[in-house]
Every structure is written in C-alpha cells, then in structure tokens.
Design brief:
Layout lengths: L1 H13 L9 E2 L2 E2 L14 E12 L2 E16 L5 E16 L5 E4 L2 E12 L4 E11 L13 E11 L15 E11 L7 E12 H8 L11 E12 L10 E11 L3 E6 L2 E2 L10 E9 L20
C-alpha cells in the first residue's frame, strides 16, 4: 500500500493534468465512484480498492480490483460498449471466532451506453452482471451464481445559464444506478441495490465556468457524496433489512489516473453495526492514456492509427 501511495504521489507531481481521459460526456468529466457503478464505458484498471471497516462483530479489510475494456466506439469516438471483471481479497477479524481470509466472488459484466447527449452532458447505459462464487465460502458475499440487470445514468449541469450566481451550480454532476441480482440457484440471495452520486468538479469550474486561480493539485479535485442502498429481497431474516449509507469523499482526477478517499455514515438503524468506522480508497488507472495502441483497440475500429 505504501508503494501504491508513493506511485500516486509521483504521478501527481510529474504528469500534466489539464486534460482528462475518462468519463467524458460533452464538457463534463465524471469521476469513478467508490461504491456506485460507473455508467460510462471506459478503459480502466482499478489497481487498488482498499477498504477497512470496524463493525459490531470485529474488523474487516478488503483489497479489490477491477478491469474494464471498451470494445465498441461510435462514429464520434464515444465509447458505447465495454466488458470487464472484478473481485476482491478479504481479511476478517471476528471478535469471538478465528480470523478468516480469501478471495470474494468473481463478477463479470457487460455495459452498453444506449443514449448519449454530449450537448446536455447526459448518458444512459444498461449492463448485465454475472456473479460467480469462485472465492472462499467463508468470506465471499454469496454462495450461489447470480445474474441480473443494471440500469445506470449520469448528468452534468452545464445546461444551467452562466448567470452571476447560478453558474456556480454548473460544476455539479450526478451519477446513479439501480440493479437487481437474483440467485440462479438456492433461495438466500436476491440482491437489490441503488446508488446516487452527487459530485462537484473543480476542473469544470476552472475550465468551463470561471477560472478562480486554482493550481494543481487543487484544480483537479472533486468533492462528492454517494448515497448507497442495498437489501436482500429474499434471504435470512437478519439480512432483509435495507442498508442505507452516505459515502462522502474527495477525488483527484488526472489524465492517467484517479485517486479517491472516502468514509461511510449510517443513514438508518440497520446499517449502524457495519459502519462504526470506515475508510475506503481507490487508485484507478486510465491505461488507454499509457498504452495508447493496445489500450484504445476496439472491435469496430481496430488499433488507432
């Protein structure tokens, strides 16, 4: 983890950051959320997703990763279809039981951006999510294969007029998702979840509204809060109550990577036992800006010229 932080610091100092390579819809660059799914098809490698939380039953640490590849671009070079995978390694310290560790389920997904309006900084996408129980049964989320749909959206507020006071609302952006993941076997896992992200982009403020003199790294910061809901629709009685949390955080978004940190706050009684103390991080690499040939290959366009 120290090596990852050192790498991120070196990149932040050494790389020019006045342009971006991820989540561009019109003039707005959307960040990669910590919990919510990213609506935009993208070439990215979530190299490290560390998470630590103190619960009523002990302590949990996880180190996640995910990889996504754009496979199709439209005539305007807008990414429209991508596929990817993700998983995580967990270590748990229960209060009254032996420590447990191992890999979580393997998740495979395909994402299609079926509506894009650059003029209105608006995108709608749909995805199919397959969850396969390939990890350690003692730590993985589910013990049955699950398959379900996911609906995603994002909207920038650049439509607002550039009036004296109202223009400072234009750097706001919204991302969200809603998914249902039923088990293909058994009866213990039918997960429903939804997320809404509210973000404020200082790069958009400086580049599209008014330059207020911010210098790097402050010019590249995002402030955000996620609202995350999840619930087992069919399952054990203790697992069917909805969990609703807020995930506030801050993100640095450059041309080659994003570095984010956040925490979680319980918004209902059912989520209190799992959020006594939470720290979440993300190091997301935009690998198409580093490996420009292989990283930007698509099925319909091949390798870039």
């Amino acid at each position: 983890m120290r090596c990852l932080c050192a790498l991120a610091l070196i990149l932040a100092i050494a790389i020019p950051t006045n342009v971006f390579a991820h989540g561009v819809v019109g003039d707005y660059v959307f960040l990669e959320p910590l919990i919510a799914e990213d609506p935009t098809p993208a070439n990215e490698f979530d190299l490290a997703e560390p998470s630590w939380n103190k619960t009523s039953d002990g302590h949990n640490f996880s180190l996640g990763y995910s990889l996504e590849k754009v496979l199709y671009e439209d005539e305007d070079y807008m990414p429209r279809f991508s596929a990817g995978l993700s998983s995580a390694w967990h270590y748990q310290w229960p209060k009254n039981a032996p420590d447990q560790h191992g890999f979580d389920d393997l998740e495979l997904f395909a994402k299609w951006a079926f509506f894009v309006s650059p003029k209105h900084e608006f995108l709608l996408s749909a995805a199919a999510l397959l969850q396969v129980p390939t990890g350690n049964p003692s730590v993985e989320e589910q013990s049955h294969t699950s398959l379900g749909p996911l609906f995603l959206w994002e909207k920038g507020m650049g439509d607002l007029p550039n009036w004296t006071a109202l223009k400072y609302l234009r750097p706001f952006g919204f991302q969200g998702d809603f998914g249902y993941l039923p088990a293909l076997g058994g009866h213990t896992s039918h997960l429903m979840f939804a997320d809404q992200v509210v973000e404020y982009s200082l790069p958009y403020l400086s580049n599209a509204v008014q330059d207020i003199g911010l210098k790097s790294p402050f010019r590249n910061l995002y402030f955000f809060t996620e609202f995350n809901y999840s619930q087992l629709i069919t399952g054990p009685s203790q697992g069917t109550f909805p969990s609703i949390v807020a995930t506030p955080g801050i993100a640095y978004v450059g041309y080659h990577f994003e570095l984010s940190f956040g925490t979680q706050l319980a918004l209902n009684r059912a989520s209190v036992p799992n959020t006594h103390a939470v720290v979440i991080g993300l190091l997301d690499i935009f690998y198409d800006s580093i490996f420009t040939q292989a990283g930007n290959w698509t099925i319909n366009r091949g390798f870039p010229e």
